[in-house]
Every structure is written in C-alpha cells, then in structure tokens.
Amino acid sequence: MLVEQGGERTLIVVADGAGGTGRGADAAAMTCELARAAFALGAMSAETWAGTLSAIDAELTRAAQGGQSTAVVLEIDHDLLRGASVGDSAAWAIDSFGCVDLTSRQQRKPLLGTGMAAPTAFGPTTMPQRLLVASDGLMKYCPRADIDRLARIGALEEAIAALVARARLRSGGFQDDVAVVLCDLAG
Predict the structure, then answer these.
(1) What does pTM read for this prediction?
(2) Which residues of 94-122 are buried (b: 16+ CB within 10 A; e: fewer)?
(3) How many domains does the chain have?
(4) Tens of pLDDT along 138-158?
C-alpha cells in the first residue's frame, strides 16, 4: 500500500501479493515502487495508468521470480481522479447517494506478474465525498452494504477501525490480508 503526494496530485496504490504464488509480497512491493516512479514523471490519463500496469506486469514477470499481485493505482489531480486496476482489490467512490465501484470492470485474473494481465482503466471522474481503496481481505469478505455503511462513519480513523473490525474473524485473525485507504475528498 502506498499514498504519495506530489504538488497538487496524490497517488494511491493498493497492491496485494497473491498467496500461494511465492514472492507475492515482493511483487506487491515492486508494484508500489514502479507506480511511484511512474507518478513522479507527471500526470497521466487512465489509459496511461493501464499501460503502466501492463509495463509493471512485464517487469514483474521478468524480475519477481513467480511473484504475482493485484493492483489499484489511482491518481487524484485537482478535482478529478483516474487510474487502473487488475485483480480483486477495489476502489469505491462514496457519497450521499451511495457507492460506485470504480473498478467494477477490472479483470480478476491473470494478475500482475504473469505476463498476461489485462489492466482496466477507470475515470476520469469527479471527486466523491469519500474514496475507499482496499484489498480483497475487506472487499471479498464483508457485505457491500456493511462496507458502504461503515465507510461513512464520522471521522476517518473511526471508519477505518470499523471496516477492519468488520473484516476480523471471531478468532481475532483475518481470512486474507486487509489493506484500507479511506480519504475525505469533499472540500
């Protein structure tokens, strides 16, 4: 997971290494670093972000020795957000009318690191009141209505704690890694 600011722009990346592929954590970390390097080059369109994820797929295939990862890369630039994704991590725009899954058209498989990933661009779209970017440890194991309701709770810290608590098993553990970025964007 990575959140980085550069002037008027913000980059959010949630990359979740695939378990069972070996080196998934390395693939996720490399995805974040390569997205950071691309972000440093300047503002990009959603289609350019999709192309960047394709380039990251090729680099991971070459260098990550079998490691695979999901990815959501999202750039906020002034009053617009855009990005690209692949896998089962997700980005949702949340406002008083409900939530919109910005990543609903993404390809779940193949993942980055296979050399066959098919990243899907999204946006540009105007800023919602809140933005949720999370791994499948939250998105797959919690009902959509619960996520939507909990993401709206007062302060960001309180909402994040409620989301993570909802994903927690009775044993105290989690079914999968849980990464959550929640932002207030309404000015």
Answers:
(1) 0.93
(2) bbeeebeebbeebeeeebbbbeebebbbb
(3) 1
(4) 999 999 999 999 999 889 999
